[in-house]
Amino acid sequence: MASIAGTDIDRQDRDPDSSANPKDAALLLQEATAAFRKRGSGTDAMDETPPETLASSIEAKYRALLEQIPAVVFMAYMDRGTSEAYVSPEIEATLGYSRDEWLNDPMRWYDRIHPDDKQRWSVETAEMFLSGKPLRSSYRVLSQSGRTVWFRCDARMERRPDGKPWFIHGVAFDISDLKETERALQQERNFISGILETVGALITVLDEDGRILRFNRTCEVTTGYKFEEVRGRYITEFLALPEEVARAHSVIEQLREGSLSIDCKSHWVTRDGATRLIAWSSMSLAESDGQPRCIIATGIDITEREHLERALLDVSAREQRRIGQDLHDGLGQHLTGIAFMAKVHEKKLSETDPVAAAETGKLVRLVNEAVHKTRELARGLLPVMSDTQGLMSALQMWADEVEDIYGVSCDFECTSPVLIRDITTSTHLYHIAQEAVNNAIKHGSAKNILIRLSIEGDLGRLQIVDDGKGIPEKQQNSRGMGLHIMTYRSAMIGGRVDISRNAERGTTVACMFPIKQQ
Asked: What is the pLDDT along the chain (518 residues), one digit of tens a residue?
C-alpha cells in the first residue's frame, strides 16, 4: 500500500487488459498469498521471481482493480508530502479536477467543502483523529464548475505500532442523485402533510388492524385528543355505539379483502364526553403484491348538519300535521255542514220543485265527494294519529288499502303492542313501510307482503317481507332514491335500515329503532 501511494506508482499507466471483476480479484489474492508464502518458506522459490517484480505486478493489478471502482478512493500519509498521497481518477469525473491538480493543493479538499458543511466536517474529522473512530458522514463538495456534489464518505485513520498517526484512507461515493430523489420526496411529503394539516376534513390513517397511524389537525380539533394520545390505539375505542364498533370491524375486514371504498357513519366520543356524528369514506392502500398496507379514512363532521336537518324535518312534519288537522277538522267539517244543509234543502224542494230538488241532489253529491277527498288529503298529511297506538292503526289501515288498490295480499302482524309516544318517530316508520311496500309491488312484482312490527327490549323492529323477485345481489348496497329515503328517515329517529334477499325468494326490509321510555 505504501508503494501504491508513491510517486512512481502513481504515474504508471493503467493496464488496459485489467478489469474490475471477481475473477481478477480472486487471482490477485491468490498471487499475493503465494508471494507471502514464498517469502515465509525460506525456499529457493523466491529466487525464481524477484520480489520487486512480483510486488510490482500485484500492485499494478490491485491498482487497476481499484481504479475501476465508481467512487473516489483516497490515501494520504500523515508524515509525508503530497507526492506520497493518492486519489483515484474518479476525482476528475466527479469534481472536474485532475489528480495532479487535486494533490498539488493540500487545502483544496477543505476549500471545496460546502460552506454549510465545513463546521460539521471539521468536528467529525477532529473526532476521527482524537478517538480513532472511522468517519462515516455525508456532505457537499463544490466541483470545479461550481456544481454541488453530495458525497458519502467512509474514512479511517491507521496508526503505527507506537500509536502515532500513520495514514488516512477511505472512499467517497457520489450520492447526488440519491439526495435529489430524497429532496423531491421530502418536498412531496411536505406538500401532502400541508394538505392533511390544513384541509377541513378529518383524515385518519390506520394500519390493517385498525390502529391509528396518523391523525390530522382537524381530528385533534374535533375530538379534543392530541395525536400522541391516540397513536397506536384502535379506532373502535372512540366509537359510541356497540353496533358501530361491529360495523367498523366489518369495514376494516372488507377493505383488507380488497373492497375499493366504503362509506359509513359513526358517532365519535370526544375527550370531554360529547358525541360527534362523522360521515366516513374509507379506502385501502395496498403494496405492490396486493397486500393491504394501510387504511385511509376521510370524515366530515355532520353533527350540526344533522341537527339542522332534523330541525327542518320536524318543522316540516309539524306543518304537515297542522295542515292535515286543519283539513280534517276545519275544511272537512265545514264541507260536511254544507252537505247536510244542502241535503235538507233538497228535501224541502222535493215537495214543491222536483227539478230544483234534483239539481240540489247533484250539489249534495259533489260536496260529499269534496269531503271525501279532503279527508284523504288530511290522512295523507297526517297518516298516524297522535296516540301511542297510532302507528299500529295506521299500518293496519295501509295494509287494507294495499289489498284494495293493488289486489295483492298484504297483512299486518303485531303480536304484542308496540307503543310509540313520539309522533315524529311513528310518522317516519309509517313512511318507511309505505316506501318498502311500494318497492315490493313496483319493482319486485310481489303477490304477498307481510308488515311486521315487534319489540325487542329497548329496540323496536319494523319488517316488510315480500315474495317478489328479490333485490339483485349487485344492487344490495346500491344508493337508490328509495333506499336513500328510508335510510335517511331511519337515521332521523336513531335507527338503521338493512335490506337482504330472502332464502327462497323476495326481499326483507328491516328497520331497527330505539323506543323512548317515559
From this structure: 333 333 333 333 334 343 444 445 445 445 544 544 444 444 444 445 565 565 556 666 666 766 777 889 888 888 776 667 888 889 998 999 998 888 888 788 888 999 999 999 989 988 888 888 899 999 999 999 999 999 999 999 888 888 888 888 899 999 999 999 988 888 888 887 777 777 788 999 999 889 999 899 899 999 999 999 999 999 999 988 888 888 889 888 888 887 778 888 888 999 998 999 898 998 888 776 666 678 899 999 988 887 777 777 777 767 776 777 677 667 777 777 888 888 888 888 888 888 888 888 888 888 888 887 777 676 666 667 655 678 888 899 889 989 988 889 999 999 888 888 888 888 889 889 988 998 899 888 899 999 999 988 888 999 999 998 877 665 544 555 677 788 888 888 888 888 888 888 899 999 999 886 54
φ and ψ of 162, to 5 deg: -85, 5
H or E, element range at 139: strand 135-142
Q: Could you tell me where the beta strands, DSSP code E, fall in 237-375?
A: 261-269, 275-286, 292-301
Q: Give the sign of the dihedral formed by CA 400, CA 402, CA 408, CA 411.
A: negative
The Cα 128–Cα 107 span in angstroms is 18
Burial class (CB in 10 A: 0-12, 13-18, 19+), 464: buried
Distance in Å from the first CA to the final CA of the chain: 96
Q: What is the 3-state secondary structure (H, E, C) of 386-420?
A: CCCCHHHHHHHHHHHHHHHHHCCEEEEECCCCCCC
Tell if the pTM clears 0.70, that is, is over it.
no
The span from the CA of 243 to the CA of 90, in Å, is 67
In angstroms, rounded to a whole number, what is the distance separating the alpha carbons of residues 305 and 283?
24
